[in-house]
Design brief:
0% strand; RNA_pol_sigma_r3/r4-like; 170 residues; 7 helices; 2 domains; transcription; sigma factor; mainly alpha; DNA binding; globular; Rna Polymerase Sigma Factor, Chain: A; DNA-binding; Arc Repressor Mutant, subunit A
Length: 170
Amino acid sequence: MPDPAGGIDPAGLIATLFQAEAARLTSLARFFVDDRTAAEDLVQEAFIRLSRSLDRIRDAERATAYLRSIVINLARDHNRRGLMSFRHRPPAQPDEPSAEATAADLESRAEVIAELRRLPLRQRDCLVLRYYLDLGIDEIAATLQISRNSVKTHLQRGLRTMESSLEARQ
């Protein structure tokens, strides 16, 4: 959002981005951290860091990619510190009381997420951004600050690994 002087209106940009992206960013963070509260905290921290760096952002359109990148890096740091490890994930609490109707779906989703978390970081990042946030190759490349070809390679390798791992489970 431009301000009258021709630059970026910081308050307007942060408010607009928060309204448009906070829920998606929280969903993104949930693939990397174990509980919703931690994911929400990471997203809030990402917005704080973005607001501190707005003077360096020349193109408001790139702010969303920058936010996604911050969330992914914060989630990695969160797990490195051992606050809640993927390997020590508590059992998921069902959102619906009728768990019988969705048991098969939840089990297959849990298997996919477990396999996703076993992938190397870049493959995981690319797959989550592509298939859970529906980002295109260019958006993924901008978010992770890697080339388009690297994104394609990581997607291919990650899908191949997940496919063989999931097939071996059956």
